[in-house]
Amino acid sequence: MVYQKNNFLKALNKQKTDHIPFWFMRQAGRYLPEYMELRKKAGGFLDMAYNSDMAAEITLQPIRRFEMDAAIIFSDILVIPHALGQHLEFVQGEGPKLDPVRNLEEISKLNFDNFDKVLSPVYEALSKVRSGLKAEGYNKTALIGFCGAPWTVACYMVEGGGSKDFINTRKLAFSDPKAFQKLIDLLVDSSAKYLINQVNAGAQALQIFDSWAGALDAQSFSKWVIEPTKRIIDLVREVHPDIPIIGFPRCAGANYISYANETGINALGLDQSVDTNWAAQNLQPLVPVQGNLDPICLLTGGDALKIAAEKIITDLSDGDFIFNLGHGIHKDTPPENVAKLVKIIRGNS
Ligand code: CP3
Question: Fewest CB within a 10 Å sphere: which of 169, 174, 178, 297?
Answer without folding.
Answer: 178
